[in-house]
Amino acid sequence: EGYQLNGDYPRCNQERVITSTPKCVLKQCPEVNHPHSTVTVISPTETTVQCNQGFLPSSPQTLHCEKGKFNSSLTPCLLECIAEPPHNMVDPDSDLPPITAMVSQCDFSSGPLHSNYTLCKESTHQLSVPGTLSATPDISLSVDIRGKLCLTFANRTSSGSLVCEMQCAESSVVELVRSVEPQGVDDQQYVKVVTNFDYSRERLTNSSRRQDSGVLSVVLFGIYLVSIMIS
């Protein structure tokens, strides 16, 4: 097991002498073709895969060939897309708690729009307000204090190249359909991000906080003037 014959079957010539015999050699693993990476065959039993610059994971992956099969699978090389920090990162009146962001990635199947995506992968993250986070190597989120949620993601252009794009909305939900690695004709992925951020309520809270702060300042200033007049 794990070996195969290499060479022609034994043949006997007219002198009744065997002219050739096959040899038993280790079974070879199939050739590795991993997108956005450099593949190096170290030996018949060891192969390394290094993702190209700008793609993750950055550490090399090693495959060991055993009996004609690799003993592990490869992690896809994904374009790193980092969310830009919100412009209004600092607000002295803001003490908003972190929000929860649920990210769904669903592969294309068949059927009506948005009900035709199956094999969904979901993950839940905590996102500071304002702040940024990387949900996956090729999907990042950012949110500012005014309720603007931005999704930075890798997408394939019509020319076939991968680029990082951004989609924003002043809403607790962002939905998009992007093109991923070609897998035939069905190479699209549906991405949905849902947060528990109540934008109208937070805006009202922030507005009330600023108004209360202004009223308090006026009251304190009035008390200060009265104290001066009395003295």
Using only C-alpha atoms, the radius of gyration works out to: 30 Å
Backbone shape = elongated
Helix content: 10-25%
N-to-C order of helices and strands: EEEEEEEEEEEEEEEEEEH
Provide the spatial order of strands within the biggest beta sheet. Answer: 5-6-8-9
Give the topology:
Elements (H helix, E strand, L loop, with lengths): L2 E4 L4 E2 L5 E3 L2 E4 L10 E7 L2 E6 L3 E2 L4 E6 L2 E2 L7 E2 L19 E10 L8 E11 L3 E6 L2 E5 L5 E8 L5 E8 L3 E7 L8 E8 L3 H32 L1
Antiparallel strand pairs: 1-4, 2-3, 5-6, 6-8, 7-10, 8-9, 11-12, 11-18, 13-14, 14-15, 15-16, 17-18
Which characteristics define this entry?
231 residues, mainly beta, four-stranded antiparallel sheet, 1 helix, 18 strands, 14% helix, elongated
Describe the structure.
The structure is a single chain. Helix content is 14%, strand content 44%. The protein has 1 helix and 18 strands. The protein has one helix spanning 199-230; strands at residues 3-6, 11-12, 18-20, 23-26, 37-43, 46-51, 55-56, 61-66, 69-70, 78-79, 99-108, 117-127, 131-136, 139-143, 149-156, 162-169, 173-179, 188-195. The strands form 6 sheets. A 4-stranded antiparallel β-sheet has the order 5-6-8-9, with no helix packed on it. Strands 12-11-18-17 form a 4-stranded antiparallel β-sheet, with no helix packed on it. A 4-stranded antiparallel β-sheet has the order 13-14-15-16, with no helix packed on it. The radius of gyration is 30 Å and the shape is elongated.
